[in-house]
């Protein structure tokens, strides 16, 4: 007999697939009710029923290359840890998707759907799934002219950045907010494990005039607990590489992230992480040189 989570998966739309999980969106958590009214009766908008909110379903599908018992144990462990990490982040003041339910048997995590824009899109890196297509077309294309470059830069000015600027937010403020969010995350002793601009979202908060937007961290599937400065340094280095590969000439932007991060943590915690980050960078450069 299919579980409720499996039924919801069948009703949802696949939006992303990785090595460990598939992500579905369900437009309405509750089905839109069917109402029958007499022809002479007018249903007011105030009393009309509305469908439930949209949700995200993260499905850790079975891995056929693993023994079924081991696979079920690993899936259950990782699913529960991700849910606990999200709850811990919430308690620590980190804005993350709300956990709606955890179905261990089906391997499904139900979460709030975040209405906003990924930082990748906001900074002109394109939507998810575009990187591979760009790589394939670039190999067969000629070098663009100055006019083509300017036209592309104009196209990259995203809807998200335009909305943020209308709310009084510039790129410097955006980077500061990212750094502050990461400082709060690491203060909970949780590392994300896959910090990229695709796993951060900007969401407008019109009901809070003093804070017109917030940064929401998503996809904690590779998260873990951390104890040592190097753990946090590696997390930051992953994001640094993501900025460099997805957003060329973004050194100043990432510097703004680190500045706000250091301010949020305070010198006592930041200094050892900064020292380790320099070591991690050096190791990364050596690997790049030796292949």
Automatic annotation (TrEMBL):
E.C. number: 2.7.11.1
Where mainly found?
Answer: nucleus
- Could you tell me where this protein is found in the cell? Chromosome, Telomere; Nucleus
What GO cellular component entries does it have? chromosome, telomeric region; cytosol; EKC/KEOPS complex; nucleus
Tell me the Gene Ontology biological-process terms attached to this UniProt entry: tRNA processing; tRNA threonylcarbamoyladenosine metabolic process
What PANTHER family would the database entry show? Answer: EKC_KEOPS COMPLEX SUBUNIT TP53RK, NON-SPECIFIC SERINE/THREONINE PROTEIN KINASE
This chain belongs to the protein called: EKC/KEOPS complex subunit BUD32
- In the record, what lineage is assigned to the organism producing the protein? Eukaryota, Fungi, Dikarya, Basidiomycota, Agaricomycotina
């Amino acid at each position: 007999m299919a579980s409720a989570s499996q039924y919801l998966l069948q009703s949802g739309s696949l939006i992303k697939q990785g090595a460990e999980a598939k992500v579905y969106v369900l437009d309405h958590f509750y089905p839109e009710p069917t109402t029958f009214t007499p022809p002479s009766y007018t249903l007011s908008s105030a009393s009309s029923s509305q469908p439930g909110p949209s949700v995200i379903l993260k499905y850790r599908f079975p891995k056929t290359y693993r023994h079924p018992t081991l696979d079920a144990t690993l899936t259950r462990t990782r699913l529960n840890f991700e849910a606990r990490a999200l709850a811990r982040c919430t308690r620590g003041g980190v804005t993350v998707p709300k956990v709606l339910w955890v179905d261990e048997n089906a391997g499904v995590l139900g979460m709030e759907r975040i209405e906003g824009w990924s930082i990748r899109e906001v900074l002109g890196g394109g939507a998810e799934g575009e990187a591979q297509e760009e790589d394939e077309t670039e190999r067969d294309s000629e070098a663009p002219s100055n006019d083509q470059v300017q036209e592309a830069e104009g196209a990259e000015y995203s809807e998200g950045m335009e909305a943020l600027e209308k709310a009084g937010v510039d790129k410097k403020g955006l980077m500061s907010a990212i750094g502050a969010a990461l400082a709060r995350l690491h203060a909970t002793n949780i590392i994300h494990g896959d910090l990229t601009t695709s796993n951060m979202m900007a969401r407008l908060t019109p009901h809070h005039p003093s804070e017109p937007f917030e940064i929401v961290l998503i996809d904690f599937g590779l998260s873990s607990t951390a104890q040592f400065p190097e753990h946090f340094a590696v997390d930051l280095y992953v994001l640094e590489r993501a900025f460099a590969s997805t957003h060329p000439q973004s050194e100043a932007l990432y510097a703004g992230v680190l500045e706000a991060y250091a301010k949020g943590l305070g010198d006592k915690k930041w200094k050892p992480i900064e020292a380790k980050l320099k070591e991690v960078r050096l190791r990364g450069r050596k690997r790049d040189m030796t292949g």
